[in-house]
């Protein structure tokens, strides 16, 4: 019996890969000006083959970290892994994320909670909201419910949540609000970029949460030295510090 070929369909996103530093994601009905490739031109082509000297690869959740346009600060693999681990997120969970930002964390949360879970994500920037709404539809993230709103002022928010992730200005101002939205023993994670914000958030968390922990993840990639092929050195021009992650559990 012959194997069924894994062909690119009109609804598929595709990774265009030329090298480790030159790869892009191509969504349906889009074009890539760098490689001069239209999505419609590769429909019917086989994944993991070459087209115009470019490899056509099938995306996975990590692909969205590697190819995302950095309009906002994004979380990397170590951050996302720690968030999912520390919040104990599992299939069937109901999770609130605000703000949505690049949508990278949203993608991983969606895959983790599965078809029986829900990811509520709030994005107050209208332009990013519209772009993300389309992207989530393209990615078939049907368990993601995105809204264009600000949690600071929004009143119609789902409650009885298993976990909350905050990446917004002045998160310390809504710690009490988040306490009310979480179910008993629900968990919260707050992402902040600076030490003074860490202090403000921790002071508020102490009022109604316990088991407060803070982490900083540093990403450092290595590669072969150009001057000495037998040496491995840290790569230049790489992202390292993203921010501080503060975790706590509802009393």
UniProtKB/TrEMBL annotation:
One of the Pfam families matching this protein, by short name: GCD14
Alphabetical keyword list: Methyltransferase, Nucleus, S-adenosyl-L-methionine, Transferase, tRNA processing
Binding site for S-adenosyl-L-methionine: 102-105, 123, 167
Subcellular location: Nucleus
Domain tRNA (adenine(58)-N(1))-methyltransferase catalytic subunit TRM61 C-terminal: 54-230
Protein name according to UniProt: tRNA (adenine(58)-N(1))-methyltransferase catalytic subunit TRM61
Main location: nucleus
GO biological process, one term: tRNA methylation
Source species: Edhazardia aedis (strain USNM 41457) (Microsporidian parasite)
Entry's EC annotation: 2.1.1.220
Molecular function GO terms recorded: tRNA (adenine(58)-N1)-methyltransferase activity
Catalytic activity: adenosine(58) in tRNA + S-adenosyl-L-methionine = N(1)-methyladenosine(58) in tRNA + S-adenosyl-L-homocysteine + H(+)
Main enzyme class: transferase
Cross-referenced InterPro entries: SAM-dependent_MTases_sf, TRM61_C, tRNA_MeTrfase_Gcd14
One GO CC annotation: nucleus
């Amino acid at each position: 019996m012959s194997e069924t070929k894994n062909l690119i369909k009109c609804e598929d996103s595709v990774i265009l890969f030329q090298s480790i530093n030159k790869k892009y994601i191509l969504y349906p009905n889009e074009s890539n000006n760098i490689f001069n490739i239209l999505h419609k031109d590769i429909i019917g082509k086989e994944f993991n083959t070459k087209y115009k000297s470019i490899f056509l690869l099938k995306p996975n959740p990590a692909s969205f970290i590697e190819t995302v346009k950095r309009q906002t600060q994004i979380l990397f693999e170590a951050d996302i892994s720690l968030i999912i681990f520390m919040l104990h997120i599992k299939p069937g969970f109901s999770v609130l994320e605000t703000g949505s930002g690049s949508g990278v964390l949203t993608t991983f949360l969606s895959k983790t909670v599965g078809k029986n879970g829900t990811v509520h994500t709030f994005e107050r920037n209208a332009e990013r909201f519209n772009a993300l709404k389309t992207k989530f539809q393209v990615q078939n993230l049907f368990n993601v419910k995105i809204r264009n709103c600000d949690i600071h002022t929004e009143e119609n928010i789902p409650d009885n949540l298993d976990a909350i992730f905050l990446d917004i200005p002045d998160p310390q101002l809504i710690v009490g609000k988040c306490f009310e939205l979480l179910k008993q023993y629900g968990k919260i994670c707050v992402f902040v970029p600076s030490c003074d914000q860490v202090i403000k958030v921790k002071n508020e968390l102490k009022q109604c949460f316990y088991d407060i922990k803070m982490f900083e993840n540093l990403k450092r990639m290595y590669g072969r030295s150009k001057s000495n092929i037998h040496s491995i050195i840290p790569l230049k021009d790489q992202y390292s510090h993203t921010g501080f992650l503060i975790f706590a559990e509802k009393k």
